[in-house]
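Retro notes
What went well: the complex prediction finally ran end to end.
Inputs used:
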Amino acid sequence: MIDTARPIAHFLGFIALLRRSDFAVAPEQTIAWLAAIELLGPQEIGDIRRAARATLAPPPERFAEFDALFDAHFLGSIVPGLEGEPSEEEPLKVAEDSSVGPEPIFGEEIRESGAKAATAERLSARRFGPGGEGEKLRLFSRALPARMPKRRGYRWRSARGGAGTDARRMFRDAMRHAGEIVSLRHRQRRLRQRRVVVLIDVSGSMKERTQAHLAFAHALVRAADSVEVFTIGTRLTRITRPLRLRNREQALASASLLVADWDGGTRIGDALNAFLAVPRFSALARGAALVVLSDGLERGDPTAMADAVARFARLCWRIIWLTPLAADPAFEARTAGLVAARPYLDRLADGSSIDSICANVLAMANEKAA
Amino acid sequence: MAVRHTIVGIGSPRELEEALRAAYYLADEELSTAAYLALALGKPLLLEGAPGVGKTEAAKAIAGVLGRTLLRLQCYEGIDASAALYEWNFPRQMLALRRQSEGAGGNVDIYSDEFLIERPMLACLRRPQETVLLIDEIDRSDHEFEAFLLEFLSDFQISIPERGAIRAYERPVVILTSNRTRELHEALRRRCVYHWIEYPTPEREMRIIMIRASGVSERAARAVVAAVGRLRREPLAKHPGIAEAVEWAEAATLLNEQGARWPDAFRRSLGVVLKDEDDLVHIAPRIDAILAEAQA
């Protein structure tokens, strides 16, 4: 079938182009698309486009980009900035602690994607001394497990009482007693802790607080079942693994070695978008409680930040944004980025001290959505 | 991949569009293509869009066109297998056992069909040729239910511990809808044929009002479409959907027949379109201008 091989290669070329542009296309979707094209005739280019949209399922906010790529590939129109250049000219770096392998190796070279560093980026290592808020954090760790936000699991477990009777179990018991129901059995949904994702702003404007924030994150990681911690600044760094170490000084020291953008500028919107662009990371945010420790002073484009927060709002269970500026009772969101993001936040509150951060996180579970 | 080219005589998107129109549903080319592909490829159809753009209506119309019963599974937070799949009829099982132990009858199999209460997903598996399964507002369910759906939608098979696996003998027609209050899992989107339903263009919305509403004049319909389009650009808590537009046209026509003048009839029936106090307050200072502009 030499005749069909060439057009198929052309179609597969489009799939490759989509993947280069960060669209997720699964093989089964490719097969469905090819089957759909065959099914439709196709009589015109519109058939192929509609089939592509239906089977390849681009997300609605990227329809325009998808169409532009389609035109570029099939109609040969040139789209500036799209072909060959998948994202912005200056992609934000994503660094990650080594997440494969059983034993973490700290201080190893950081895996990075992206081309060149931001010019304003100031890479520097920072040392941590022992924190003076140990007692508060200890109390926080103790109070946390009972007050973590919970979600209902899918599975049932037997319970002492409650509204739900476990008919299945009762019936099975009855079989053993000649069809006689001997006792009432109850069941309830198993509760599980929600994952908490913490984003810590490590830019220059948050300089004095990052140590306290990391100490807080360490206490949280140690006390809760499932926590992920990232730092945001001019780049995004995952520091969950080092924070799992028991000893706080050691954990903080290893974490700070991973973070390469201490006290640089802030590109919150870009950092959040970089987070969302990694499927594995955005899967972590799904249904999670998101805690952002940042003053929201965005140097980049405020609309990028608002869009990213809106996407987080659709992924996450709750978003609480703790800013040190809110220690002032007259505080309200004034910076362009924070004003635009405000509607998507479930709470914008004081993050000036360990005390207030702990209190806000502990209060999260009992809170209704805004 | 098992492809069927024609389903109940429908062999192309255009034919499906016509059939849907006969069922009083005006689908655009994109929707009819996606729906046709879903039927032909035997994949679930995932419809996403703002509330009130006609996702559930589309499912009803497709079921109508196919001449099948629509089984609707409304999702909610905490939905579980006994609401979606099946449940044993315990009281009946108990009675049957009692009767048997009192010597009334022979051997009863208490795990036979007569003791099984079918829920929509099981019903759809057992009678794929007679049913269309609508899984409505899936974004309201939990992540676990979504994961469970994933399994169901790829194999069209479920297992009942007492009975073993039950498998559909042909791929059933499944339609999922989501308001996109949260992002669905990538794996779920991947298994489906996807369509994002937009608000209709003014001309199409007008045709929808004309075929859906009774006794609405063309002029009134045009004014409603213009005003509703304007309202959708306002920052409201709830934007008016198509159903609201149809109702508004009907309500205003009714008031007009009873003697209310035109802009006034629209203003007095505004509660049909905007059902949120904050929205009404927000729009109040400008409603006259919007109506005047719409009627021009």
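What we learned: The interface with chain B takes residues 24, 26, 28-29, 31-32, 35-36, 38-40, 46-47, 50-51, 53-55, 57, 60, 63, 151-154, 167-168, 170-171, 174-175, 178-179, 181, 189, 279, 286-287, 311, 314-315 of chain A (CB under 8 Å).
What to try next: split runs per interface for comparison.
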